[in-house]
User: Fold this.
Amino acid sequence: MAVAPLSSRRRHAATMAATAPAEALPDPCPTAADSSPPPPTPEELVARAVAPVKAAFLRPPPVRDTPTNEESRVSGAVPLEKKSKRQFRRERKQEQESVSRLCVAVGKTGNADACKYGASCRFSHDVDAYLAQKPADLEGTCPFTVLEQSCQYGLTCRFFGTHKDNLAPSENHEINPLSKDIQKLLWKTKYKFPRASAQIKHLGLKEVMKIKANATTDDKRADHDNPDVSCELNGDDKTESLGSPPVNVEHDSSLCEEMDNLGGEPLVDNSVPCVVPRASKKSKVEGSDDTKVYPEDPSSLNGLEVPSDSTSSCRVDLVTTPHLREKKIIDFREKLYLAPLTTVGNLPFRRLCKTLGADITCGEMAMCTNLMQGQASEWALLRRHSSEDLFGVQICGAFPDTVARTVELVDNECSFDFIDINMGCPIDVVVNKGAGSSLLNKPMRIKSIVQASSAVTNRPLTVKVRTAFFEGRNRADSLVSDIYNWGASAITIHGRSRQQRYSKLADWDYINQCAQKAPDDLHVIGNGDIFSFTDWNRHVSGSSKISTCMIARGALIKPWIFTEIKEQRDWDITSDERLDILKDFVRFGLEHWGSDTKGVETTRHFLLEWLSYTCRYIPVGLLDVVPQRLNWRPPSYCSRDDLETLMASDSAADWVRISELLLGKVPEGFTFAPKHKSNAYDRAENG
Assistant:
């Protein structure tokens, strides 16, 4: 059967419908046969960004009738009824009184008397009533039992029937939890940032955030020239052991008194009120009159010199900025770097990519203001699994003081190898706050952010940017020549502007142009459209100035891309192998989010978010041209087996069916709509 030009799925369906009756005729008209256009060649399809699927697998697009109520729920087509605050309060109260909310202590032990709060506990202690309404166990084995560990969810586990007795306590392999003590300090704005405050003052920058200070006479007197800025460096003695290393220790008030005598000027020689650039990477810091580097000493506080009893030591350098050569060095060259991915780049997904060959992982983007407020949901983005041997955290902020304080905060409380500042996020809610790619219009603010942030940590600082804010007005090349001297160890350049979002192809010629202008010691990391090992080889091996490539959507669509790059092959992966990868993700998700009902549904939600990307993968055996390109639009096709065809569906109802193969039936009233509406393909609004 002849294949019509695939300018669109609708046009393809119309052509298929038109040719079907012609083939049914016993004696087709010769003139009609001669007038029918020849099928497009694979090269013509590729030129039109259409995936060249073999003709044997092509099929007409499925005709979808009006969706049923069930299909409408899973696809999110039915708008939810807006509820009043009174309804929310009533439902919350009913949920709290429900027997389905079993006390954690009771559920873990099965003993109604195990809760230390007794009758005042807000959760149910009725074990029999809970078991009577609990859904049936899911198929499979508890992920903690597989590890020969006791399940911490006890009766509430959806695999309770597979539990074994006398198992070792479950081990927590996740790092960077938010302690309650630190969270309370952040809630009360009593967490101290001595290094960041001193650096902001040293650079002469305006402080946007207001830090609550203790009402001591000396501290008030030190702030009389600038009431919006607090130079208080000390906190209560009782908080000394909350951070590691400790940041809340008592200081001598003579430090603030001397600043008061100097009229509020920072205690550095030859200080200037404007932003001071970092020393050149070839200059010697030791022995300089302007910047003094002190050796590590017990009397120092995270790089700050603490005044001793001697009066001659009262005048100290508040800012002891570590030179880049004194920072920990990470060699990014030719390492497989999984990009920080919002929502889908969660800990279980990163752990899965590590098993498939990723070398470097980075947590999801966390907003600085949310971290400073102690929001547990934002701190969860900084979690790290023990298998992530080279791990970074990514933060996003709009102002130098906010970002610098956040860097100091996570440097004190978290374990990571490098910290990345996102200056390329195109999301409207981020850009409207002056963060993300909005900073590309403010190069001096970028300079202040990098200078202030790099000075408060000894770990490598990296920056992620786009080519420009507006298409055709590239300005990333003006940053790479100076950003190393400002304090960055690496820069990641996404080859698109903010206006492009994720449409059109990444501009790798411009990325190479930027890499040529970069200093030798600055790692330049390219990002955009890496979808096969040939793409990787062309951009990394083809340019000596690009250290490595960051893989983002390519890893979402096919996470085995890391295996392909390391083995230098196009993996024609089977549907059963892909299902095993999904099973691994589900297992990691249940270990991370929990094996109780809430954990199962959270795992299902993030699995569905991921399946909204994996459906775009086209098996290698179905293509006339290999490898698949990221911008190819897939035609309607059937695959080699039913499971592979189901995985290729772009219907949310089919994604839900896949999740039911792994996590059982969805609960009553389940709804799902993908959070990310990727515009990887050209659309009218993208020009």
The chain has a mean pLDDT of 79. The first strand starts at residue 174 and ends at 175.
